[in-house]
Automatic annotation (TrEMBL):
It comes from the Eukaryota. One of its GO terms (molecular function) is trehalose-phosphatase activity. The keyword Hydrolase applies. The keyword Hydrolase applies. One of its GO terms (biological process) is trehalose biosynthetic process. This is Trehalose 6-phosphate phosphatase. Belongs to the trehalose phosphatase family.
């Protein structure tokens, strides 16, 4: 009896260790190390000037040449993966825990569904990605929460079976589309669409700030403004490093007279937005609430995103105690996400697998449940 007990305990410990190893290896199998190091370096360059609540772009620019050596980067990434395992390697375990529960999918756009490119107007998503998102949305309520204007992200995604939130969640539209229960039955059809814009009163001031910024930044070569509806992006991806400081100074000078606005940072972009208590995390909660799913203990939100602003949504999932926050990153990052994916191509694989998993589990249901 005693030996039997010892045998069972040791077997469980070995199994747990093997699963963990398998999750990490799941990642390692999908990327050759050479490719991984190259991607990491490219991403590092991208991130050096992104992120952070109060950006200091000039300072970050001067640090850019001090790159870690490739080996160190790669081993850092591997140890980061232990804390944030690859969602592909962990897929079976994640879905086993989600069985019979209601999965709701939230997706960021730039850097998640589309690769980061120099020209923000050309950040197209591939047809393959569109098909995968469409397939996922057939089985699970799916929302895209982007920093872009809602119209712009909709124009890129071109799908009518997903929900959209623009301006980092400050512009939410929940149209009247059907929502299904976990066993595929129609749960509720909202008969009217819902539009939620918590920063609406700031619109005239945003327009004013945009005009001022246009004037102040026009001589800085490569600087580019983007009107995101309830926030404004000042892109500096194409600006010479020696001009970063000047650009930052000018943007800050405009904000001096607009105390109800703040400046945050993304991937080679400064973002001006109203200082209201509303972010992508609130948007996630709003969607769940509007769909009648916020109090349900069997709801599993999956959120996939790559940027600082997505951390607010990761935090919400963490505090709910259920769900999968997944960060898209090819470098180790401080994050609240529990899982990771390397880049949009892995996001594609994950979404395809998710839809396939659902399709298979529906077709395997006993006949009396169909
Ligand atoms: O919340 P998201 O959907 O991730 O939007 C965040 C910002 O994404 C876009 O900028 C980023 O992608 C561009 C295209 O790849 C790239 O050129 C830029 O450097 C990145 O910061 C978008 O243009 C911004 O307005 C969004 O706020």
């Amino acid at each position: 009896m005693k030996y039997m007990f010892l045998f069972i305990v040791s077997f469980k410990i070995i199994k747990k260790k093997f699963t963990k190893l398998n999750e990490i290896m799941g990642f390692q199998r999908s990327h050759s190390s050479q490719l991984k190091v190259q991607t990491i370096l490219k991403a590092k360059e991208d991130e050096t000037c992104g992120g952070g609540e109060a950006p200091s772009f000039s300072l970050r620019a001067s640090n850019q040449s001090h790159y870690h050596n490739n080996k160190l980067m790669s081993s850092n990434y591997d140890s980061w993966l232990v804390k944030h395992p690859c969602a592909l390697g962990s897929f079976d375990r994640m879905m086993k825990a989600a069985k019979g529960k209601r999965i709701v999918v939230f997706l960021d756009y730039d850097g998640t569904l589309s690769p980061i490119v120099d020209d923000p107007d050309r950040a197209f998503m591939s047809d393959e990605m569109r098909a995968a998102v469409c397939e996922v949305a057939k089985y699970f309520p799916t929302a895209i929460i982007s920093g872009r204007s809602r119209d712009k992200v909709k124009e890129f995604v071109k799908l009518s079976n997903v929900y959209y939130a623009g301006s980092h969640g400050m512009d939410i539209m929940v149209p009247a589309i059907p929502v299904e229960s976990s066993d595929g039955k129609l749960l509720n059809t909202m008969d009217t669409e819902v539009l939620f814009q918590p920063a609406k009163k700031f619109l005239p001031e945003i327009i004013e700030i945009f005009t001022l910024l246009k004037e102040k930044t026009k001589e800085i070569q490569g600087a580019r403004l983007e009107d995101n509806g309830f926030c404004i992006s000042v892109h500096f991806r194409q600006v010479r490093q020696e001009d970063y400081g000047k650009l930052e100074e000018r943007v800050k000078s405009v904000l001096e007279n607009h105390s109800e606005f703040c400046l945050t940072g993304g991937r080679k972009v400064m973002e001006i937005r109203p200082s209201i208590e509303w972010n992508k995390g609130h948007a996630l909660e709003y969607f769940l609430d509007t769909l009648g799913l916020s109090n349900s203990s069997d709801v599993i939100p999956i959120y996939i995103g790559d940027d600082r602003t997505d951390e607010d949504a990761f935090k919400v999932i963490q505090s709910r105690g259920q769900g999968y926050p997944i960060i898209v990153s090819s470098i180790p990052k401080d994050t609240k996400a529990g899982y990771s994916l390397l880049d949009p191509s892995e996001v594609l694989t994950f979404l395809q697998r998710l839809a396939r998993w659902r399709k298979t589990s529906l077709s395997n249901r006993p006949l009396h449940q169909v």
